[in-house]
Amino acid sequence: xxxxxxxxxxxxxxxxxxxxxxxxxxxxxxxxxxxxxxxxxxxxxxxxxxxxxxxxxxxxxxxxxxxxxxxxxxxxxxxxxxxxxxxxxxxxxxxxxxxxxxxxxxxxxxxxxxxxxxxxxxxxxxxxxxxxxxxxxxxxxxxxxxxxxxxxxxxxxxxxxxxxxxxxxxxxxxxxxxxxxxxxxxxxxxxxxxxxxxxxxxxxxxxxxxxxxxxxxxxxxxxxxxxxxxxxxx
Length: 234
Fold this sequence. Notes:
With 234 residues, the chain is mainly α.
């Protein structure tokens, strides 16, 4: 099926797509590399993860810590499974693009089945990115679990604090991958705005970016986390 769209319409779609990709990359960079004067929640949580491992060394009973790390692995496994299911649903929608065109004819009357397929590929790609990030995060939390188990019970042991620092570092990298997966899911949902045309995609791109920025830099939870932060001894 041929896509018969005016040149300005094709240009608008391309511009909206570029805007979404720029928003995705820009907010990711801003969250992971914020100015020192206003760190993001993700950066602030690095201190708590390091503090967790410092407390872990001297904690008499380490069973709760094992429970915590298992819960983190379960969360990543759940989101990985959900992403995989959503990818399957997205591929099914691409396969049934003519039926979707009929349903969306009142929204985008000039879309065409082939263009619908192209528009549905975008959220599937975001979901695929999220799936890969969650899989890697799950594996890294597993590495962290092993490193935690290798921490000697005696805090005076020469390897105790070093092993704990290693576990903290891997934990931080696992969380970074986890957060990237969550951002990809946000933008997968936002990319569905393309079904409403290029303006819809532009609007959802900006809204998704604004939601992520508020949660990382201006949320109530951030103010609570900032209260009496642990010292960063990295």
